[in-house]
Write a structure and sequence with these properties.
The complex is a heterodimer. By secondary structure, chain A is an alpha+beta fold. Chain A is built from 5 helices and 7 strands; from the N terminus they run αααααβββββββ. By secondary structure, chain B is α+β, with helices and mostly antiparallel strands. Classes of the chains: A alpha+beta, B alpha+beta. β1 of chain A pairs antiparallel with β6 of chain B.
């Protein structure tokens, strides 16, 4: 029997085609009717002896197993791609040098990033002392990482002199005296005015 | 041939990395537009002494005291005065922690590594030091001033991001 005819017979046995649809085949081979009856009897016996629907044992575990199998398949795909990539690195002429250089540059950039995130040390570019008897010397305090300017030749402050300091917190420009008053809190403490030549005049306010 | 290619690859990667790193390193602290403060300058007058300090003496920040101890051969450091002023990009500023030593500040704008400043240290009515510096936040400059008996006066300048720390 041709495959096409066999396909028609199968569909007829399953009930998808009527006797009329395969009339030509039935005329050719009347024993097909007996074969259909036998197939139907077998089907009824199977349905009678076995449940059509059966509950999956431990359904939750079944789902877990199913999803785990799916994840395993996915991981296999990822590792496969990764192993192909690493194979390229080790086997290619360019792969290993590029990878090594990239790693080196990554460490270099991270290091510079760390270096840059720290403050740059302040530095002295140039010094000048108007009084030729004075000398300014610049040095780096290695332990502290600080720049120090040492002024030599200065007249000492007499020991008896009371050196008073200020802690200004605000200021106000004074239009009348062309100066600025500095306050400690609300208390005026200093007045700074400038001469026509730009010389400062500091006056302590009581 | 293989070695030459490897060296070329390494050299290209190193040059690319240096270009990136150089770009990162040259980034300076952003400076605001003209007319706005370009940071705050903290100036302090400090008495360096081997004598123990009185109980009511103002003490310094611990980190600063440690740096001073490493830079000068004195045991104790007393804060005599301090003043914080905004650094203007346009106008001069005066930092006045005392009448004995005080400072005039003129901004020269941002430079590589920090903020360029022209500083004049005044002692009473005289300029005793003119200096061009590059200050960076958190990195002070110490100026050793005149002796005061057995002690010494120090002037400290530091660029700060905020008015009060």
């Amino acid at each position: 029997m041709k495959d096409e005819d066999l396909f028609r017979v199968t569909r007829w046995i399953d009930g998808e085609l009527t006797d009329q649809d395969i009339k030509d085949l039935l005329e050719r081979d009347p024993s097909l009717v007996e074969e259909r009856e036998a197939a139907r009897e077998i089907g009824q016996t199977i349905r009678r002896e076995f449940e059509a629907e059966r509950e999956v044992p431990f359904p939750d575990m079944f789902n877990r197993q199913l999803f785990r199998r799916i994840d395993d398949e996915r991981q296999k795909t990822v590792w496969s791609s990764a192993s192909r990539f690493f194979s390229w690195i080790t086997l290619s002429e360019w792969g290993l040098p590029l990878a090594s250089s990239a790693t080196l540059m990554m460490f270099l950039c991270v290091g510079l990033q760390f270096q840059g995130s720290r403050h740059f040390r302040s530095r002295v570019v140039h010094t000048f002392t108007p009084n030729p008897a004075h000398v300014a010397k610049t040095s780096e305090s290695g332990a502290a990482g600080v720049t120090v300017i040492s002024l030599q030749g200065l007249d000492p402050v007499p020991e008896s002199t009371q050196v008073m300091g200020f802690f200004p917190t605000s200021s106000r420009k004074e239009s009348l005296v062309a100066g600025t008053t500095y306050f400690e809190g609300k208390r005026p403490r200093l007045l700074l005015s400038l001469t026509q030549d730009g010389e400062p005049r500091l006056s302590r306010l009581r | 041939m293989r070695n030459r290619r490897a060296m070329l690859a390494a050299l290209a990667a190193i040059l690319a990395g240096l270009a990136v790193a150089g770009g990162q390193e040259s980034g300076n602290p952003a400076q605001p537009a003209t007319g706005l403060p370009a940071g705050f300058l903290w100036g302090a007058l400090i008495r360096a002494t081997d004598q123990p300090l009185k109980d009511d003496a103002k003490v310094l920040d611990e980190g600063l005291a440690e740096h001073l101890g490493q830079s000068f051969s004195f045991r104790n450091f007393q804060l005599l005065g301090e003043h914080t002023q905004p650094v203007s990009a346009e106008y001069e500023t005066w930092v006045l922690p005392s009448e004995e030593l005080y400072m005039k500040v003129d901004s020269k704008g941002p430079v590589s590594g920090g903020l360029g400043l022209h500083l004049q240290l005044w002692r009473r009515q005289n300029v005793i030091l003119k200096t061009d510096v590059v200050l960076n936040s958190g990195s002070p400059i110490f100026i050793a001033g005149p002796k005061w008996g057995e002690d010494q006066l120090l002037f400290v300048v530091q660029l700060r991001d905020q008015a009060a720390e």
